[in-house]
Amino acid sequence: MNAKKEIRRGLPIGIIIVLLLGCTPAAQKVAPGDYRITRPGATSVVVVHSRSGNTALVAKLLADAAGATYVRLKAPEGTGDSLISSPNRNAEVAIEPRTVDLSAYRTVFLGTPIWFWHPAAPICSFIRANDLTGKRVVLFYTYQGGLAKTAIDEWKALVAKRGGTVVEVIGINRKMHATDEALAAEVTSIIAGRLKSLLPSK
Ligand SMILES: Cc1cc2nc3c(=O)[nH]c(=O)nc-3n(C[C@H](O)[C@H](O)[C@H](O)COP(=O)(O)O)c2cc1C
User: Fold this and answer.
1) In 3-state terms, what secondary structure has residue 165?
2) Is residue 64 part of a domain?
3) Atom 2 of ligand 1 has which residue's CA nearest to it?
């Protein structure tokens, strides 16, 4: 396939050069207690992979708004630090946890950064390992400006293969926000807008 045709929303040349040189932003240091927030009685769960913290920030806001349990996937140290340490989306990554008991949840939020124009490998591994039968699924991602035309359809198909139905897709371009506060403001506005009908009323 012609690579130029596959890419939309602009090729983030700067990002690719940075990645090739192996100087991505540092991986976020996560305290052990920050990998999971359990909310007894929750009917939603937010499962996220995040290397440098952007997608985790979005995930936490979504989990707070939905009163959801929050699970941040751990990938082996160094994953995504450079081109050579970024597994292909179809590769199996040794994520922790590999499975989550989803039986109590009606809605499953799945979040990831975009790596090389596609959802990153850890969230794809999680989807392949879990049963989404009958679940409403909200997909969310952060990126810096470029993903493949086919990326979202491919991601939706992966969810469908595991029995889930994608009801919403949220993409946040990190480059559009100078600060975490600005990013949070966009998420808050999405929560009050197109996500409202999917969240439990308070
Ligand atoms: C290995 C790697 C590959 C990336 N590839 C892309 C890409 O193809 N397109 C894009 O827009 N951003 C790309 N990015 C930027 C990330 O998607 C963006 O910074 C995201 O917000 C990071 O999320 P996180 O902080 O939750 O890890 C890449 C970042 C890394 C580390």
Assistant:
1) strand
2) yes
3) 115
CA of 143 to the centre of ligand 1 (A): 5
Supply angle C-alpha 171, 174, 179, rounded to 5. 130
Number of independent structural domains in the chain: 1
**91 in a domain, yes or no?**
yes
In a domain, 8, yes or no: no
Per-residue model confidence as pLDDT tens digits over 165-192: 999 999 999 999 999 999 999 999 999 9
Residue identifier of the C-alpha nearest atom 1 of ligand 1: 80
Ligand 1 contact via 59 beta carbon (within 6 Å): no
Q: How confident is the model at residue 1 (pLDDT cuts 50, 70, 90)?
A: very low
The CA distance from 172 to 192, in Å, is 15
- Residue 194's domain comprises 32-198
- Please check whether residue 56 lies inside any domain of the structure: yes
What is the pTM for the complete model shown? 0.91
Residue 10's DSSP bridge partners are: none
Domain of 42, CATH number, reads: 3.40.50.360
